[in-house]
């Protein structure tokens, strides 16, 4: 007869996500995970695999739950440019003083810590960034078609610039106690949409 798990794997994964998000991959040991999750090492391995597999599952969870309102914000009917501006300003506000300001963005943290050294993590980072870029691009294409953007503006290039800006806002916001820095950078970038 198989034993039933004495812990909730979903809750344990969420707890691991929070620990990895706060500490990063390298700084989180298996002992940290055992202590934080409150379950034994053997149970972690049996349920999630090794530390790397658990990290990737946590990153997948983060990506699944990422900014669920972003699609709605950028695809609402009517003028598209105000929605794009609102999203960039929201990212700046969250980066400068949001609930997870000190933790930053788990995807951005992964990119900075693991970069291209970890191809599996890099694929997840790229997928996340591609998702945001696609949403921005779609909104900017609509703005272009509706005459909100000057005819000489390239929606794809603008979407990429905004993606890079938004990720940079997260990095600077995590490390800086000056929220005006990210707010001013966002406002300057938004002038390129005029």
From TrEMBL:
Residues 29-48 bind DNA. It comes from the Bacteria. It holds the Pfam family TetR_C_13. Keywords: DNA-binding, Transcription, Transcription regulation. Gene3D superfamilies: Homeodomain-like, Tetracycline Repressor, domain 2. Residues 6-66 form the HTH tetR-type domain. InterPro entries: Homeodomain-like_sf (IPR009057), HTH_TetR (IPR001647), Tet_transcr_reg_TetR-rel_C_sf (IPR036271), TetR_C (IPR011075). This is TetR/AcrR family transcriptional regulator. It comes from Streptomyces koyangensis.
